[in-house]
């Protein structure tokens, strides 16, 4: 039982660690997908839509917008996952960082060399893991986010001149944050743990029965036979049966010793009868 408890604890720790790794791998894959969507928009979509900036401002030209919209389609199939381009001073209000996201951004600002942060947080769906990467201002960002006067007038007309400006080169202004629920991975770990423990218990019971059967056949039964014969001899019954001739080596040695004792006792009794 002690071995089963130790094995169960170690198994649970391994399964929990693997579940955490799986969740983080999913989050990393989603972040890479969002980054790819941003890069695709910046390199291929933006050049196509730039001529329209004079008459209108299509939001599809913004890498932030493209990554977020792409993930919204992913959420249609996986509503438990969330992605956000959380920003302290966004152009689009939906990108404004919540309090806990603002803390992450501030930590990136305090540690300029950090490239990724991983943590846990409680959500309405239970414990979740998040992976965050910093968003730095690049040269092309300043075209729209330096000052309202330098930004395309169609952008200002669409979003106003109060938000999303004053960014500085290489400044950390936000973070890509993916939140992944831990519940599904934990449920899988629990199922694997239960299967392992049931298998372990079944093997333990089988081994217990086999060991007990072997002990009974090779140890317990011979010992009982030795005890019965020795008890009869102690009462002077020389017609008692033979001591067992099979069993483990130590019991066979004991049987031979008792057999020699019986022969010696028989000789002694015959001498007394004379």
Please give a structural write-up.
By secondary structure, the protein is of the alpha+beta class. The protein folds into 2 domains: 180 residues, no CATH class; 83 residues, no CATH class. The protein contains 7 helices and 4 strands; from the N terminus they run H-H-E-H-E-E-H-H-E-H-H. Strand 2 and strand 3 form a beta hairpin. The longest helix is centred in the C-terminal third of the chain and has 52 residues. The radius of gyration is 39 Å and the shape is rod-shaped.
What is the N-to-C order of secondary-structure elements (H for helix, E for strand)?
A: HHEHEEHHEHH
Order of strands in the sheet with most strands: 1-4-3-2
Radius of gyration: 39 Å
Number of helices: 7
Main sheet attributes: strand count, strand direction, barrel closure: 4 strands, antiparallel
Taken as a percent bin, the fraction of beta residues is: 5-15%
State the gist of this model.
This protein is an alpha+beta fold. The protein is 59% helix and 12% strand.
Layout of helices and strands, plus pairs?
Blueprint (H helix, E strand, L loop, with lengths): L1 H48 L13 H15 L4 E6 L11 H12 L6 E7 L2 E11 L5 H4 L7 H7 L12 E10 L1 H52 L14 H25 L1
Antiparallel strand pairs: 1-4, 2-3, 3-4
Helix pairs in contact: 1-2, 1-6, 6-7
Key terms:
274 residues, alpha+beta, four-stranded antiparallel sheet, 7 helices, 4 strands, rod-shaped
């Amino acid at each position: 039982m002690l071995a089963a408890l130790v094995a169960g604890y170690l198994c649970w720790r391994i399964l929990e660690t693997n579940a955490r790794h799986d969740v983080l791998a999913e989050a990393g894959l989603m972040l890479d997908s969002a980054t790819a969507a941003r890069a695709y928009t910046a390199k291929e979509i933006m050049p196509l839509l730039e001529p329209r900036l004079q008459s209108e401002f299509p939001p599809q030209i913004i890498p932030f917008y493209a990554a977020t919209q792409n993930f919204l389609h992913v959420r249609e199939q996986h509503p438990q996952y969330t992605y956000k381009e959380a920003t302290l001073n966004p152009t689009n209000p939906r990108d404004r960082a919540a309090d806990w996201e603002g803390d992450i951004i501030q930590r990136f600002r305090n540690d300029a060399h950090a490239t990724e942060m991983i943590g846990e947080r409680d959500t309405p769906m239970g414990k979740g893991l998040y992976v965050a990467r910093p968003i730095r201002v690049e040269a092309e960002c300043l075209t729209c986010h330096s000052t309202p006067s330098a930004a395309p007038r169609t952008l200002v007309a669409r979003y106003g001149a109060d938000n999303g400006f004053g960014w500085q080169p290489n400044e950390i202004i936000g973070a890509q944050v993916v939140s992944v629920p831990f519940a599904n991975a934990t449920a899988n770990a629990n199922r694997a743990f239960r299967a392992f423990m049931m298998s372990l218990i079944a093997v333990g019971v089988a081994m217990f029965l086999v060991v007990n059967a072997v002990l009974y056949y090779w140890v317990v039964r011979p010992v009982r036979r030795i005890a019965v014969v020795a008890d009869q001899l102690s009462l002077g019954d020389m017609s008692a049966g033979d001591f067992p001739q099979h069993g483990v080596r130590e019991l066979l040695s004991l049987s031979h010793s008792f057999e020699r004792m019986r022969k010696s006792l028989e000789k002694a009794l015959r001498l007394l009868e004379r």
